[in-house]
Structure formats: structure tokens, C-alpha cells
Specification:
By secondary structure, this protein is mainly α. It contains two helices and no strands. It has one domain. The protein has helices spanning about 1-5, 15-40. Pfam families: HepT-like.
């Protein structure tokens, strides 16, 4: 998706971008927070 956004932004379907943000970013953040907690608790 990054390549499409950067190089072909005129044809980007904003609905697809918004759906990706809405559905994928929150679970990713949760996973990243979990990983961060695991890594910082081992110090």
C-alpha cells in the first residue's frame, strides 16, 4: 500500500485507506504495546 500511496496517490481509493486504518492499526498498536511491555520488563 505504501508504494501506491507514494507513487500513485491520484488513484488511491480513500475508502480502502480508511478501512485499513480503522481495522488494522488498532490491533497492530495493541500487539506493539504487548511486545514493548515484554521487552522492557526483561531489563
Amino acid at each position: 500500500m505504501r508504494d501506491k500511496l507514494i507513487h500513485d496517490y491520484i488513484q488511491v481509493d480513500l475508502t480502502v485507506v480508511w478501512t485499513t486504518i480503522s481495522n488494522d492499526v488498532t490491533p497492530l498498536l495493541i500487539e506493539l504495546e504487548t511486545i514493548y511491555e515484554i521487552l522492557t520488563s526483561e531489563e
